[in-house]
Amino acid sequence: MSFTYKEIKNLLPKKQYLMIKDCLEDNSSFPWFLNKPGATVEKHIEKQQSKKFKNIEEHPLLFNMMYFHQDEQGSLMDQTKFHEPHLRLISTICKEFVVKEKIKKIHILRARANLMLQVKNFKKDGHNTPHIDFEFPHYILIYYIDNTDGDTFLFKKNNSIMARIKPEPNKLLFFDGLIYHASSNPVKNKFRKVINISFTKGDNLI
To answer: Does 153 or 72 have the greater pLDDT score?
Structure first.
């Protein structure tokens, strides 16, 4: 049976978890940027997917901070150097992950922090547009910061729900990147903060 997903609770020692949490909540120094509509999922993909998935409720308002990003040719985007001081957060998560999963090295494709806002009228079983980050084989890590609602949805090939992952502090979700997945906005809580890392197995870049 091929790998699908795995949840790793209490990934980091408490001190390291609190360091990451405090950094993301430091309004005076952490640079959150407002995403424009279509920055996460392009409009034509959203339209295509709306025919396949019945509970899409796309809310384009999203804040994020891109730590690290490679273009299709494997070159680093200019923004990587700008955010270099924050790369230690990614390094902390990845180093603990490879030790626990006994993976020698990983090749980071993209790493960013996402901040989703409360949407009080978000449907109970609703989710944002299912998507994959890259068209080639890869893996995804989602590191949850808070105890909040705003589940992550993973989908089977027939578009039915494979799993619904509840955010919990210091929990890591590890899954096959070719599985269609979607976030959902919090209804009861004001924020949903995660760190999202896409990678392949290979040389470690951080």
So the answer is: 153
User: What's the Cα-to-Cα distance from 93 to each of 9, 21, 111, 131, rounded to whole Å?
Assistant: 13, 12, 11, 24
Name residues whose C-beta falls within 8 Å of residue 95's C-beta, 6 or more positions apart in sequence.
none
Q: Give the pTM.
A: 0.87
The total of other beta-carbon atoms located within 10 Å of residue 143's CB is 29
- Between CA 32 and CA 39, with CA 37 as vertex, the angle to 5 degrees is 70
Report the alpha-carbon distance of residue 24 to residue 144 in Å, rounded. Answer: 12
Q: Report which listed range, 1-5, 16-20, 202-206, is most confident.
A: 16-20
E strand residue ranges, the chain: 5-8, 33-35, 62-69, 106-117, 139-144, 152-155, 161-165, 171-176, 181-182, 191-201
Contacts of 181 (CB under 8 A, 6+ apart): 130, 131, 132, 140, 152, 153, 154, 155, 175
What burial class does residue 157 get, using C-beta atoms within 10 Å of its C-beta: 0-12 exposed, 13-18 middle, 19+ buried? Answer: exposed
Asked if 135 and 45 touch (Cβ cutoff 8 Å), the reply is: no
Residue 147 neighbours by CB under 8 Å, 6+ apart: 167, 168, 169
> How far lies 13's CA from each of 16, 18, 172, 185, 198, in Å?
6, 9, 13, 28, 23
Q: What is the DSSP letter of 75?
A: P
